[in-house]
Amino acid sequence: MANPKFMKPMQPDADLAAVVGSEPIPRTQVIKKMWDYIKANGLQDKVNRRNINADEKLLKLFLKPQVTMFELAGIISKHLK
Length: 81
Known about the structure:
- The chain is globular.
- Helices cover 51% and strands 12% of the residues.
- The longest helix is centred in the middle third of the chain and has 14 residues.
- The model has no long low-confidence stretch (mean pLDDT 94).
- The chain has one domain: SWIB/MDM2 domain (MDM2).
- By secondary structure, the chain is of the alpha+beta class.
- Helix 2 crosses helix 4.
């Protein structure tokens, strides 16, 4: 059974909405859309696949040029209301 807290639609802020859209969506879908964006734009580091390189949109979320996949959930949480 999925945790209802993760299924509750949440509102992305403007920086996150630039990547996942502005409609309220569950956190699980935010993570999925982030990965879709990362893969579609080739932002996974070629050497260390656990690292994500920021493009212009992701730099506004990450506030640094590269993050690990383990940091992603924490970063996304700061951009959901």
